[in-house]
Amino acid sequence: MIIDDKKVEDLAHLARLEFSDNQKQSIKSDLVRIIEFCDKLNEVNTEGVEPLIYLSDQKNILRQDISKPGLSKLEVLKNAPSADSDYFKVPKVITK
Amino acid sequence: MVSKKYNSLAHIQSDIQKGVISCTELAEYYIGKGKENEHLNAFLEVFSDEAREKASIIDTKIKNGTAGRLAGMFLAIKDNICYTGHKVSGSSKIIENYEAVYTATALQRLLDEDVIVIGRCNCDEFAMGASNENSAFGHVKNAADESKVPGGSSGGSAVAVQADLCLAALGSDTGGSIRQPASFTGTYGMKTTYGRISRNGLLAYASSFDQIGPLAGSVEDAALLVEIMAGKDENDATSSNEVVQEFTADSTKKYKVAYSKEAMESEGLADDVKARYLELIDKLRADGHTVEEQSFPYLDYMVPCYYVLTTAEASSNLSRYSGMLYGTRSSNAHDIESTFKKSRSEGFGEEVKRRIMAGTFVLSADSYDAYYSKAQKVRRVIKEESDKILAEYDFFLSPTTPSTAFEIGGDKSKDPIQMYLADIFTVQAPLAGLPAISVPTKESNGLSIGMHFMAKAFEENKLFNISKIVSNYAF
Question: Measured between alpha carbons, how far is B300 from B69 in angstroms, rounded to an integer?
Fold first, then answer.
C-alpha cells in the first residue's frame, strides 16, 4: 500500500480533517510507519477464522418497548455552539 | 482531625464511627492536599464547594444511620465520565466547555451509595495515550518522581490516588489505560470483563474495548467499587446480565498460575521489572501455588491488532465532534464542509488526528479486508488462545509494563510506535474481553512496579483475591 500526498489528502477529506503541508508530511511518515507495524498481522494464519465482532456471548436479549421521556429540548440544546429556542443552527447546507 | 493518609474506606469509616474524623474534615483535608499539589496537574477541576456541602449532608446521614455503603469515600473521576451539571471534556479543546446533561450509570450507582466526587482528572485526550502527555491541558507529573510520566491515559486519576488527593478514582481502560498508570503510581487498577460495567455516560473511544474501572490504594476499595458499578444497565446493550457478587478475601486458596514465557524473554523488559517478575513467581510457589511457564506466541501481534481495531472504532466514534451539536465551532469556516473540517482540525490534538487518520485508512474500501477484517480475525485467535490457557490455569501472569515510569518528553514521547508498545502486556485482556488487574509491588529506585494478573471472564473476585494474597508478600 502506497501512502502518498494524494492518499493523505483523500483520507483527510474522508475524516473531515485539514493539514498544513508540514503536518501532511509528518502524518504521511507516521502513517507509513504505523501501517508497516500493522502489516505484521499478515504473519498470523487466519485461514477459516471468522472475524470477532461481538465480545459478549449474550444474544437476543429482549425488553418491553415502553416509551419514556428522554432529554428535554433545553438539555439537548444546552451545549450547542449555535441554536435558537427550538433548533440547532448550522451553516447553510443547500445552495442555489 | 485528619492527620494521615487513608488507604482504605474501612479505616475511614471506622475512624468516623469512633468520632476521630468526619466527612467534613476529610473534605477539607483532600481540598488542602489538592491545593498543595496543584503543580502535579492531576485535576482539571476540583469541586470544593460541592464536596463540602455533600460532606456535611453525609455526616448527618451517618449520625442518623441512613448513610450508603460508600459514605466517607472521596472519589476523583476521569475527565471522560459524565456527571450531570459538571464539565466533561475528554481533556480536549474540542469540547472544552461541554457540560454533561446526564450522569454515567456506573457513577450514578456510586453516588447512590453516598460517594463524594472531589474533582475531575486530567487524562490523555479522549483516552488516547500511555503517558498523559496528550492532554490539551498539559501533562500530569508522577508524584513519586516529577520528571516521570504517571502513565496514561488515566494518569490524573492515578496520581490523584497516589498523592492522596482522594481515596479512590475512576479511570477508563481501552488497552491498558487504568492498569498501566496504576503500575506507574503504586496503586491497584482493574479493567473488568467487557460488559461487566455499563459504558453509558463514558465518552466513547473504542466501544468494543472500553471499560470504566477503579484505581485505589487497597484491594477492598477496588473490589467494592467494581461490585457497586457492575451489572446490567438498560442504557448499555452490551452490559452483561452476569450475577455480581460481593468480594470476600480467602487467603487459604491455592491457585494455578501460568506465567508468560514471551513476556519473560521480551527484549524491552527492563532488568528491575524482570527481577521482580521472577521474585513474584518464587514467592507464589513458596506460598503453595502452582506456577508454570506457558507460551503465548502472539505477543508481537497484539499491539498491531489493537491499533488497527481501536483506531477504526475511534475514527467512527469521534465523527460526532463536528462543531454541529456541541463543542467548539470554528469561526474561520464559511460553509458546512469547512465548518466540519476547521472545527475538527482546530479542536483535536495531534495524537487524536493521527489515530483518526489511521482508522480512516484501515476502514477505507481498499484496505478494509487487509487490515480491519484481518485484525478482527487475529482478535478471535488471540481470544481463543487466551481462553485455552485460562481453561487450564486460574491466572495468566506478566508484568503490567516493560519498565517503570519513563521520562516526560523522552524518546517514547517522540515516537508513536514506541509509545504504543508501552501497552504490550496490557492489550491482551481487552482484545479477549477478559478482566485483569495491576497489583503494586515494592519500588525500584523509588518507582513502583506493577504485576499483572488476567483471569477468565467474570472472575473479577478471583483477581481481587490473588491481589490480596500478593499484597501480603514482602518484596
Answer: 44
